Amino acid sequence: MTAAPRFLSFARDIRPLFRDKDQQSMRFLFDLYSYEDVSAHAKKILEELEEGAMPCDGPWPPEQVELFRRWVDEGMAP
Ligand code: HEM
After folding, report:
1. C-alpha to C-alpha distance for 54 and 70, rounded to whole angstroms
2. Ligand 1 atom closest to Cα of residue 49
3. How many CA within 13 A on the CB side of residue 54?
4. pLDDT reported for residue 72
5. Threshold 0.70, pTM exceeds
6. Cα→Cα distances 35→2, 5, 59, 78, Å
7. Among residues 17, 10, 14, which one has the least CA distance to residue 60?
8. pLDDT for 12-71, tens place per residue?
9. What are the boundaries of each domain within the chain?
10. What residues does ligand 1 touch, defined as CB less than 6 Å away?
């Protein structure tokens, strides 16, 4: 039996992917703990994650990038 499909949510699925270090390092541009900021900059954030350019200390594993991409594709639920 497979689980019912569900939309990803920022609070439950995306926000926990960011470390305190990420949030603090990026505060000069946007707040990674803020739904408003992350959804406003989602395109650029996804670009950086896919290139492996961010986080500055090592790329996310592909499954984690895929999760962020899915959240964006689904319309960025809070
Ligand atoms: C998942 C975590 C992170 C995300 C999603 C992220 C995302 C981004 C984005 C979207 C930009 C703008 C790039 C541009 O406009 O060209 C950026 C720039 C920058 N980030 Fe991050 N960042 C993350 C973590 C970090 C960490 C841990 C550091 C470490 C110090 C860092 C340091 C910087 C710096 C210095 C810049 C400006 C210079 C540059 O573009 O390389 N970021 N980041």
Report:
1. 18
2. 5
3. 15
4. 98
5. yes
6. 30, 22, 22, 6
7. 17
8. 999 999 999 999 999 999 999 999 999 999 999 999 999 999 999 999 999 999 999 999
9. 10-73
10. 18, 21-22, 25-26, 29, 44-45, 48-49, 54-57
